[in-house]
Write a structure and sequence with these properties.
The chain is mainly alpha-helical. The chain folds into 3 domains: about 15-140; about 150-265; about 275-330, no CATH class. Helix content is about 70%, strand content about 0%. It has helices at about 15-20, 25-30, 30-50, 60-65, 70, 75-95, 105-135, 140-165, 165-170, 175-195, 205-220, 225-230, 230-245, 250-260, 265, 270-285, 295-310, 310-315, 325-330. Helix 13 runs antiparallel to helix 14 (about 250-260). It is elongated and about 70 Å long.
Length: about 325
């Protein structure tokens, strides 16, 4: 990783500039969705600006973001939503590398231009959609589903950017910030895409269903680390407060109370032995062609499996598992 508080050689091309940025911890702190668009955003900004990005003034930031970058750049909405957070991390890295000294002013200019850029990009998108609709009025469930995923990705990025502005999160180590992103992004995906509940519909039982039924199952194995789970109460409390301040949540007090009441359970949500047991049980069911949507089949096979592996079952289930869901509720689903 390029971690430096002293001047390093200044790249002469936008491609080299992005390559250096992509190997930094500042880049690592971008969300998954932001990383997806980072290269395209940085290269396009370089192409549409009359001034090299490392020589930008605040006026250059405004002119570029509200110029052809927004008005003649046919991209999905998520691309433009991700642009300002990407620039914020890029300016942070460039300052650390000694390439610029006006990071705060540049970042402020980018944030100031955000709404105008989004409006201009949406106007362009609407014009394009109108032209397309004249020749093709067909829509498919697949495209609708893709649009919904993109909508949720954009919302998640926007909310995560706001969460990162909270001092408690901003002062965390990069690895912990990434865990906060994973926690919130996973919760949002399960709640909105999986349970079909937007924030205005979230209730304490929504929190319980997300965390006790699905959360562990949809996490990538690399994310199943003790430190991530200890951050869940803080991450969710901060997230709820941010959405409440934006007027998005109706019952933030009840949701925050649920997190507080279940602090210990959330911090100790993951049990490696139990998760390993469920993974083995799932593999055995798949080999035996068990219908995992059939509770009777699942229960019968689980009992049979426990009888065949008594020591394994005893090692797992003699430990206190208060609040842990059954296999039927924890079986591995497709993500969301």
């Amino acid at each position: 990783m390029n971690e430096s508080n002293q001047t390093t050689e200044i790249p002469s091309t936008i491609e080299a500039t992005y390559q250096s940025f992509s190997n930094s911890t500042a880049f690592d702190r971008l969300t998954v969705n932001q990383k997806r668009y980072a290269k395209a955003v940085i290269l396009k900004l370089g192409q549409t600006s009359t001034t090299f990005i490392l020589n930008w003034t605040p006026a250059d930031v405004v002119d570029t973001l509200t110029g052809t970058f927004a008005t003649d750049n046919m991209q999905v909405h998520n691309y433009f939503v991700a642009t300002v957070p990407i620039l914020g991390r890029f300016f942070q890295y460039a300052e650390q590398a000694g390439w610029l000294s006006n990071r705060a002013a540049l970042t402020a200019a980018a944030k100031h231009s955000r709404e105008d850029m989004l409006t201009l990009s949406q106007n362009q998108s609407h014009e394009h959609q109108n032209k397309v609709s004249e020749t093709n009025t067909k829509s498919t469930s697949e495209s609708d589903e893709t649009a919904e995923v993109q909508r949720v990705d954009a919302l998640s990025d926007e909310w995560l950017s706001a969460v990162h502005e909270v001092p408690m999160v901003r002062n965390l180590r990069p690895a912990d910030q990434n865990d906060v992103d994973v926690i919130i992004d996973t919760f949002v995906g399960i709640a909105i895409l999986g349970l079909k509940k937007d924030p205005g519909d979230w209730q304490p039982d929504t929190m319980q269903e997300v965390f006790y039924r699905y959360f562990v199952s949809v996490l990538d194995d690399d994310d199943k680390q003790r430190r991530l789970f200890t951050l869940i109460p803080m991450a969710m409390t901060t997230f709820i407060r941010v959405l409440a301040e934006k007027g998005i949540l109706k019952n933030s007090v009840a949701l925050s109370s649920w997190v507080s009441d279940h602090h210990e359970m959330l911090a100790h949500l993951y049990n490696e032995e139990l998760d390993h047991f469920y993974s083995q049980l799932t593999a055995a069911m798949q080999t035996a062609h068990v219908d995992m949507t059939n509770k009777q089949q699942v229960d019968a096979f689980t009992n049979q499996y426990l009888r065949a592996h008594p020591q394994q079952g005893a090692a797992v289930f003699t430990k206190k598992q208060t609040g842990r869901p059954s296999f039927q509720s924890r079986r591995h689903h497709n993500r969301y």
